[in-house]
Each structure stands twice: as C-alpha cells, then as structure tokens.
Amino acid sequence: MNAEEEEEVCTNLTPRNKSLAERGDRTHADSDQLATKPATSPPPFETRKRNINTCTVLQIFLIMKGYHCHLLLCLAIWMSLYQATQSVFQESIFIVTASNATHNCRPVDGAEIARDVTSRSLLDCGRSCVNMEKCEMLAYSEQQGVCLFYHHHWKSDLCDVKGDWMMMTKGEANLTMTVCLNGGDVKEDGVSCQCYHGYVGDRCQRVMEDCYEGKMSGHYPRLGSGDQAVLWAQPRSMEQPVQVRCQGNANTIIQRRSSPSVDFNRTWQEYEEGFGKVGQDFWMGLRNMYLFTNARQYDLVFYFNLKNGTTRYFIFKDFRITENTTYTASLGAYAYIQNQIINGRPVEEMSGKPFSTYDNDNDNAVNVNCGERFGGGWWFNACSELNANGRLVTTGVWSGEKEEVHYQRLGNNAPIYMDLRLKIQQP
C-alpha cells in the first residue's frame, strides 16, 4: 500500500451513524427488567447494517500490523477508536473468507493447548480464552463451531488462514467481550451484556425480529411472564426497525383498542401506513404486517376483555398477508375459541379476502360498502360477523349497530378492550 492509499484509508474512520439508544432515551434497568422508554425515532438502515465498514476494518488491521498513517491522522484514528469502540467492535475484527474453511496456523512452540467444539459464538470462545490461564491467542470458526486455544502468539509467517476463521489475542478477546453495543450494559460477570430497546445478541449488535425472539434472547425475561413493553423490532425483509408492543407471553401486537378516543374510521393510506401510538391505541399498518407475517409463521389471536371481567380469545391459524397491493389475508383451515376448534365462517370470511376501507371498497357485498357501513377497515367478505375496527363501546353491551366493535360469537357483549396479536407458531 502506497502513502496516498494509506492516507485515503486513514481519513474515514469516525462512524457517521448513531445507534437507536444514542438517538433517544434509554432506561437503565437491571438485567431482569424491561426497557420501557424506547428511542423516539428509528435510525437509518445503515445504523444496523454498516456501523463498521471496510475502511474501518482495514484501518484497525493496518494499525495492529504496524503500518503508519501520518502522525495527526493516526492520533485522530486512535481518538476515534477510543470514542467509538462500540461501533468498531460490532463485527469481528479479522474475518478472512475463502471458498473453503481451513486453518493452518502454528504457534511459536508448535502446539495448541485445547480445542473446544461446543462454543456457540466468538463471544463464548473469547470468554473461554480469557478464563484460561495459559491461553494467549484463539481461533474460532462459526461454520465448524470449533474454537482453538494457544499459549503463544502466532508468527505471521507461520499462519495460513482460509474460510471464516477469526483470530484474536487474549487482550483483543477481553476488549471485545466487555464492549456492549447500542446502549447495552456489561453485566456483573464482566463479560456478558444486558441489552435494551429490542436489541439482542451477545453484544446487543442487532434488533430483534419480533417480541418472541426478544423473549428467547434472554435480555427481556419478563416478556415471558405476561409483562408488556414497547421495543424495536425488524423482520429480515424490513429496511428500518419499527416500534412494536410486546404483550401476553411475547406476542407482537398489531392492533389495540382500549379507548374510543382514537378513531379507527380511517383512509386506505392510513391503514396501510399505520396510525395511533404504539404505547396506547394503534394500528400497526398493513405494510408492516405484510413484512412481519412473511418473515415468520404466526397465528392471529383475537383477545377480548368484557365488562363482567371475563376474557375471551380466538386463535386463527396460519395468518399471513400474501401480497402488498390489496393486502389479501390468508388463514389456515380452522380456528380456536378458548382451545375449542371452530370451523367454517370465521375463517372463510377473512381468508382470501383483500382489505377494504370506506375509500377503497374491495369487499364482495352487493350495493354495500362494508368499510363505510362498519366504520372501519377490515378483510370483509360480504361484510362480517366481526367488527374489530369500528367504534369502541364503553358500556360493554352491543346495541346491534354494525359500526360498533363486536363479535357475534360474544352475544350481546361488546368488548371494552381488545387487541390483535401475532403469536409465533411453535415447532
């Protein structure tokens, strides 16, 4: 590398993006608490995908290998490294890729001291090396799930690395382990991270796909006990994270009704983009529902609270929005009411039906606009025995008016609270 190329590499180190936690408030919680104060706005897509770019990785590599930038530039680099350690260590420092994964490194004295085939991640491998007295260097392959430990550093002329092997000294492993990204905190053990706001991973390096993944990550244990929280989520096909409400054993809420103050008689565009406040009453938006339901397999749960204090729920199997033009719904062959199978009409009314609103009539009713008659958008057939997005009735009694929130299977009971939940299908 010539001086001109070296100077160009040395000028692009400082990260330009901020994490979600840096962009908004963060709740400082204990490891068993939920973060309930999310950031106020989602980050640009590059925040999660490009916190560390090729120039940054190459720069660190050059410095550690003994190359030198101009003095002032090097000082700026090290200042940036100190201030932005979280972003720098979001991805592994040295990852060499090739067509096959082989590792022919030989330490100074020619022998490895241990081989671990149970490591689940680079963090596990690094933790083992830090806790091993004789370990001075490690090599980890994610593809093979193998971690190798050495008690001397490698000589550069004795190392031939191919594939996905990652090489670290004990010092680098210790630094990597104790850095928690995106506002995460180091736990009392000094090596693991507590994540907030919906971030997951060993070092809080990415946003969860949905509430269920947040629960299973171990960072939000109270989600599994019925607690609720507003967190960030990002299915694989979604370009930017969105705020979601997690509730009821880590279900992802897509609609919530608790007060008549939020009007659900909205336009097609509003139903497509979403409206309301996630922490209160809201509609997630058809576009986001499409991305969520095409990333993982869900059942759709209708959850009702009645005036007399009872709770009713209905589970529609295999819920998915199949396309993103009219947002046609697809359901399985049956549904449950309190664990009892119900066939026929509830599934048939929704499955295969496009979404309709008063200003975009896609239902099958003759001479009737179901969205206008029911006062809210839905997957109508020839209208429906269910109105989830009409006017919420606080008396708890359904008067028989179609525009009131009701479900005929509840009789004359009108729910005083309801929500729709995406429940992950268990393998």
Automatic annotation (TrEMBL):
Q: What InterPro entries does UniProt report for this protein, alphabetically? A: EGF, Fibrinogen-like_C, Fibrinogen_a/b/g_C_1, Fibrinogen_a/b/g_C_dom, Fibrinogen_C-term_domain
Q: Matching Gene3D superfamilies, A to Z?
A: Gamma Fibrinogen, chain A, domain 1, Gamma-fibrinogen Carboxyl Terminal Fragment, domain 2
Q: Which residue ranges are recorded for the region named Disordered?
A: 1-47
UniProt lists compositionally biased (Basic and acidic residues) regions at 19-31
Cited SMART domains: FBG
A Pfam family (short name) is: Fibrinogen_C
Query: Which PROSITE patterns does the entry link to?
Result: EGF_1, EGF_2, FIBRINOGEN_C_2
Cellular component terms (Gene Ontology): extracellular space
Q: Which residues form the Fibrinogen C-terminal domain?
A: 202-391
Q: What name appears for this protein in its UniProt entry?
A: Fibrinogen C-terminal domain-containing protein
**From which organism does this entry originate?**
Littorina saxatilis
